[in-house]
Amino acid sequence: NIHSDWNDYRVRAHGDTIRVYINDQLMHELIDESPEGEPAGIIAFQIHSGPPMRVELREVRLRPL
pTM (2 decimals)? Predict the structure, then answer.
């Protein structure tokens, strides 16, 4: 069942650039050039609004760049 497999989800935030990879494939890149941007912040997991869903995380690691 494809829905029971785990995906590798990696977020790399460096300076004003955030890149999101799923299974080593770049899926999204954001370059935040906003003058109101903060150089530091919090790390959180978030789910969008909508129908109920279940999210499971395992082997979460944080590494400084």
Answer: 0.71
Residue found by looking up tokens 């997991």 in the block: 45
Task: Classify each residue of 6-41 as buried b or exposed e, where b means 16 or more C-beta atoms within 10 Å of its C-beta.
Answer: eeeeeeeeeeeeeeeeeeeeeeeeeeeeeeeeeeee
As a whole number of angstroms, the longest Cα–Cα distance in the chain is: 46
DSSP 8-state assignment for residue 26 = E
Q: Which residues pair with 28 in a beta bridge?
A: 20
- d(C-alpha 60, C-alpha 44), whole Å: 12
Residue 23 CB-half CA count within 13 A: 3
Q: Render pLDDT for 18-41 as a digit per residue (tens, 0 to 9).
A: 999 999 999 999 998 888 877 777
The whole-angstrom separation of Cα 36 and Cα 25 is 30
